[in-house]
Give the backbone structure.
Amino acid sequence: MGILFGLVFIGIGLFALVFGLIQFRTAKASADWPTATGKIVTASVETSSSTDEDGSTSRRYSPRVEYAYTVSGRKYTSNQVSVGSKRTYGSRASAEAKLDYRSGQQVTVHYNPGKPDQAVLEPGATGGAWGTVIIGAVFAIAGAAVVAFTM
């Protein structure tokens, strides 16, 4: 049972690690992507709720930005601020403090030249890109430790 548990952890860890490394590579490449002028369509705080098995409800708040831009005469929209995971906060005030964009604001959009529909406002590797790599590594190492100590 312990070996199976460890192998599952290794598998999850390796999947997350590979996914994180691809995400990190994309984030790093985004710093060199060409740019286009864009405009913030909406900037708001999104609320999500979840209920646990005891019936308790918790709320999380996320800054949400949607922007429009044009590449080679074709219009695109995106809500991706940076490459990496979406940040959530325990209070609306915290999420509002991280909302760095306003509706109607002109912005510089960094877009993938091979896939112009893939774009970010904040290029380069951020904490979100590193987070998946770290979580994957922790799972893989924990799984390997379980397997090693079970044998």
